[in-house]
Write a structure and sequence with these properties.
This protein is mainly alpha-helical. The protein has one domain: 434 Repressor (Amino-terminal Domain) (Orthogonal Bundle). 49% of the residues lie in helices and 7% in strands. The protein contains five helices and two strands. It has helices at 44-54, 58-65, 69-77, 84-99, 104-116; strands at 12-15, 30-33. The chain has a two-stranded antiparallel ribbon. α1 (44-54) packs across α4 and α2 (58-65) crosses α3.
């Protein structure tokens, strides 16, 4: 079994909102960016980048934290500040996941196994 090169962190995906069609349910075009360093208070952009790196929704983050969805939605739109304790917990997890991606050949093997099953 081979592991991905961890010397070079994998860029995380950033959503390019300009490429998204209004009313489209498809995900926006993604362009690679590195996860910025944590600056407190956490910005709404960095919150979105962290959620994207983890492939978590706002609802998923709320569930993991035991919070109401509306609290995380308020953070995401900047209506309430993101608590530092949340930022200090979330950012390192997102950085670790984005630095160690699932190797592409594993994804292909999983797809092939699903098709042949």
């Amino acid at each position: 079994m081979s592991f991905p090169d961890t010397a070079h962190p994998r860029p995380i995906a950033v959503i390019d909102l300009s490429a998204q069609q209004k009313g489209s349910r498809d995900r926006a075009v993604r362009t690679p960016e590195t996860l910025p360093a944590l600056a407190l208070p956490m910005s709404t952009d960095l919150l979105r980048l962290c959620l994207d790196a983890l492939d978590w929704s706002q609802h998923g983050l709320a569930a993991r934290l035991g919070l109401n969805d509306s609290t995380v939605r308020k953070w995401a739109r900047g209506a309430k500040p993101i608590p530092d304790v949340v930022a200090k917990w979330l950012h390192p997890i997102a950085a670790a996941v984005s630095a160690r991606p699932v190797p592409p050949e594993w994804k292909q093997r999983a797809r092939d196994a699903t098709i042949s099953a």
